[in-house]
Amino acid sequence: MNKQTYFTVFLLGLVALIGGVFPAVPGFAASSAAPPTDRFGGNLALVTQSTGHFRVEQAKGRWWLVTPEGHGMVAMGVNHLSEMKNAAILSRTVFARRFGQDWARVFAEVEQQCRAWGFNCAGFQTPVEMRATMPYVISTSFMSASFWQNPLAYVDVFTPAFAAEAEAKAMAAAAEMKSNPMAIAWTWTDSTSWDLKFTRATRGTDYVSFMRDLPADSPGRQRYTAFLRERHGDNLAKLNTAYGAAFPSFEAVGGTRLDRDRETVFADDREFLRLIARRYFEAIALPFRREHPTGLLMGDRFHLRDHPDEVLQEAARFIDVLGIQPGDHFFAPLEKLTRPDETWFDATEFDRLHKLTGKPIIIADHQCGFFDQHTPKTGGWFQYATADEAAASYDRFLRDAFAQPYIIGYFRCQYLTIYKEQLKRYKQGLLRPDGTPFEDYVERLQETNRQILNFVR
């Protein structure tokens, strides 16, 4: 079958899909038996060109994740499965009693459960034992403290050391993706806190202030000084007038004499933040592209509402998929949200993000918890009073999300419920801390997942 025939079959499948299933929006019709899939989870009826690697494609008004065998799919995954490989955590579960530390058998059982509950991917932070049989996302850390942590730990992206680190990690990710067709994309764990106003209000610092406060001979500070000269025509008097200050040199701009809230200062800071983001993304993405030109790049998992447009615009120059993590507000947003728990899909904001970047979107990490007598306090995500309410919220969020043609995946946060010392609470998963499932809850999620997968096929 030639390429044109493949594509014709693909479009015919989409016509049948849109004509037969999409009219069920906003409610989902009762789903029929799931159609057969390839080994990656792609629908055999949705056929396009086989390339041997994952990619994204837009056809008939919808974005698709396309499997290496050329079949359209959406990704439904579970993150943090590798936490099961912690011997202390595992020892408290039924897995340890059944399998000991025979990791191959442990994760064969994990995969069987995930698939039974309608998840076709392993998400990010996936154990090596599952990477040959279940699609997953390669995850690499570039910031030692993520957006939810305090203090933050920014890095000078203009240094040769950062460039060397970026190249080494990019080459490793590219090599893994080229050697393993199950690797969907490469993402970076987690995004830092990017938004200037939000980060200043919650942590007292921000990325631009970090660069400004570096030693005078550091690459980041030198780039900031050069930026000021470019921005103000190498005219110190002009800068001082704009800043309402009396700095003796461009090198001296900063410290307590700088009014960061002054309109002109803040405008300059936003433009320098753009340069930071540009260097950050190009330093990581360009060596990856050199090594693997066709590999999917997700880049940062941006925290919803902590991603200035300047940063997203720079990211869009280098990435293929926009990863967004809604919710888990460890620090309250500056503006009051209509639905602050983020268990409702914010179509208006996601529409804006898609229009701004032009990229398909994966919900990169998301969930909600519920009260359970054995794990009464759950942390990080909103907690509902009952499992039924949490399951209903999951169902509502996914239906609303996948009604948007640019959503190509959803990764649920957490498989096993684990006590997190830094939160002093449980991070709730699909299983209790002893490794037994929340039976009624996962049955509800299973039905939602089944209907979602049929809805977008």
Describe it.
The protein is α/β, with parallel strands linked by helices. It has a domain at 1-73. Helices cover 39% and strands 14% of the residues. The protein has helices at 3-20, 87-90, 94-99, 103-116, 160-179, 196-203, 207-212, 219-231, 236-243, 263-291, 309-316, 347-357, 387-402, 439-455; strands at 55-59, 62-66, 72-73, 75-78, 136-141, 183-189, 296-303, 322-325, 361-366, 369-370, 383-384, 407-412, 418-420, 425-427. The protein has a 7-stranded parallel β-sheet with strand order 4-12-9-8-7-6-5. A hairpin with a 2-residue loop joins strand 1 and strand 2 (62-66).
Helix segment tally: 14
Shape: globular
What structural class do you assign from the helix and strand content? alpha/beta
Largest sheet: 7 strands, parallel
Number of strands: 14
Strand content: 5-15%
- Average predicted local confidence, pLDDT: 90
Helicity, in percent? Answer: 25-40%
**Unreliable residue runs:** 1-31
**What is the CA-based Rg, rounded?**
23 Å
How do the strands of the widest beta sheet line up side by side? 4-12-9-8-7-6-5
Keywords:
three-stranded antiparallel sheet; alpha/beta; 457 residues; seven-stranded parallel sheet
Brief write-up:
The protein has 457 residues and is α/β, with parallel strands linked by helices. The chain has helices at 3-20, 87-90, 94-99, 103-116, 160-179, 196-203, 207-212, 219-231, 236-243, 263-291, 309-316, 347-357, 387-402, 439-455; strands at residues 55-59, 62-66, 72-73, 75-78, 136-141, 183-189, 296-303, 322-325, 361-366, 369-370, 383-384, 407-412, 418-420, 425-427.
